[in-house]
């Protein structure tokens, strides 16, 4: 069986269906993106819109990373030392007794 190419209308319909499914979810990058199949008429407003959405996504990424860093720091501070407070490691006690350190 040979390769069957899609027509322009089939590609456009598939793109619209994919866009429609992605735009229903607000947590996806395409959540508030304008329809990609419409032609761009005003370049300035299109670039401004792209920059606005890019800044919003970057702010969201920064906020998420800050939360992850804060959680990591909190977990790190909550850890307890394995050796205990001020004690030496138990396995090295016999070694220190048998050797002379100058």
Description of the molecule:
- The chain starts with 7 loop residues before the first helix and ends with a helix.
- It is built from three helices and no strands.
- The protein has 102 residues and is mainly alpha-helical.
- The protein has helices at 8-23, 43-78, 93-98.
- It is elongated.
- The longest helix has 36 residues, at 43-78.
Q: Summed up, what is this model?
A:
The chain is mostly helical and 102 residues long. It is 57% helix and 0% strand.
Give keywords.
single chain; mainly alpha
Write the layout of secondary structure elements.
Layout: H1 8-23, H2 43-78, H3 93-98
Largest pleated sheet: none
What would you report as the Rg, rounded to the nearest angstrom? 30 Å
Order of helices and strands: HHH
Q: What distance separates the N and C termini?
A: 84 Å
Low-pLDDT sequence parts: none
Give helix % range. 55-70%
Strand runs, count: 0
Query: Percent of residues in beta strands?
Result: under 5%
Average of pLDDT: 76
Strand-pairing-aware structural class: mainly alpha
Bulk shape: elongated
Distinct helical segment count: 3
């Amino acid at each position: 069986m040979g390769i069957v190419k899609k027509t322009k209308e089939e590609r456009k319909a598939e793109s619209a269906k994919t866009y429609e499914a992605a735009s229903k979810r607000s947590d996806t990058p395409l959540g508030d993106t304008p329809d990609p199949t419409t032609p761009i008429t005003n370049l300035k407003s299109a670039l401004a819109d792209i920059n606005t959405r890019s800044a919003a996504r970057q702010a969201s990424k920064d906020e998420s990373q800050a939360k992850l860093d804060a959680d990591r720091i909190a977990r790190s501070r909550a850890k307890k030392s394995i050796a205990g407070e001020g004690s030496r490691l138990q396995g090295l006690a016999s070694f220190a007794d048998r050797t002379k350190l100058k």
